[in-house]
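Quick note —
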Amino acid sequence: YNVQLKYSYWKDATSSVNEVASYINGITEYIFDENDVLYAVNALPGTSCSGAFFSEQTLPAGKYSVVSWANINGISRVNSPKVFVTRKEELMLYLDVQAQNRVRQSPSSAGTISYNSEKLYYGHRTFRINDGRISRVNVDMLHAHCILRLSVRWKNNTPENTHDFYILYKEIHAVYSFIPEYIHRLGECKLH
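Predicted structure written out below.
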């Protein structure tokens, strides 16, 4: 191999512990060439014995970018990627409507109904491969899901029957682009 991609997840800005193995159980990486044409798709189904995600690839010299999605388990899907054909701007991650309908029809034993996607994580990085050298690239993963902690406090007395209440959230973002809206370059955050 001539490139090693190492995945990291830092729970917050002050953390010094890579917690990728605690939050991520599978990564799919999409590698694009310098013209943003899909070059390879790789599934990393689990962690190594060190508890880290690594990908080792052999690529021709040139400039590349990798877009990685973690924890896709059937509720979300990527629209038909074709290696050497599909361009980065054509790829989107969608909530799968048929999978959502299956979830709606089979609520969990607690009486709740899940309309949300998986706990998705996203990573994007550009890198260069030089002839005769091994490139080691760190890909930082960011969570791409809503983290919501909800407490219900009854104004008066708690109703006797509380087991069949559920919450429905509307306007949850159901499509994600493979091109980040903002790019951090040279210490500045700019619109892509």
